[in-house]
Amino acid sequence: MTNVKSSVNLETIATDLEDMASSNIEHATDPGTPLQQPMLTEEVNPDSPLRWFAVRVRSNHERVASAFLRNSGYEEFLPAYKEQRRWSDRSKEMEQFLFPGYVFCRLDPSQRLPVLKAPGVVDLVGFARVPAPIPDVEIESIRRMVQSSLLVMPWPFLEVGNKVLIERGPLAGVEGILDEVKGKCRLIVSVNLLQRSVSAEVDRSWVRPVAANNGNRSGSAVTRST
Q: Of 23, 47, 55, 149, which one has the greatest count of Cβ atoms within 10 A?
């Protein structure tokens, strides 16, 4: 992308920042109602030069960088969730980022200089100074989780477990790993490049296994006690 605006209206950025909390998390309809969603494929358009990349930003610069990229014409994604914070005299619902320190951005890596000049941006995540793209399916799975009405939160990176497909509910069509915590089922979706995961609580009746896992021959969900 070459036609990137050189300046951004500060009032527009301020307005976008105020709207961030309400725009990042949308509520779906009845979670028990099957949605006509196709299974997510590996890439939406593998021939497109615009791929998803993880943009590393300085601490507490996620919102500023995200708003700047969006207003500069880039497609960006800053997934967040709600967390209840409690103090001795009060409690408050706070918005937290699922991947603190990162903003996801779709771009042509050969034209990445404007992104690197955005406020708070450090670099693009990659190997040997070469930016590494993130599969579309990983970003879209995270997006679907954020847009659902389900309880979504960060999760320890989980690579091994029972691979399942969600057939019903707001995550219909999403694949992930089934984890069980204190009798409740959670779908785990990961951004492997960052080795970070996100979880959403799901109904066991929504899922079906999609492949046998050699690391867990019993066929049951991975179970955690905490």
A: 55
**pTM summary value:** 0.72
- Do 147 and 26 meet the contact criterion of CB atoms below 8 Å apart? yes
* Stated length of the chain: 226
| Dist CA 222 CA 219 (whole Å) | 9
Mean pLDDT of the chain: 79
Phi, psi (deg, nearest 5) at residue 158: -125, 120
Rounded Cα distance, 202 and 164, in Å: 12
Please name the CATH architecture into which domain 10-224 falls.
2-Layer Sandwich (3.30)
Q: Where are the domains of the chain?
A: 10-224
- Other CB atoms within 10 Å distance of the CB of residue 99: 19
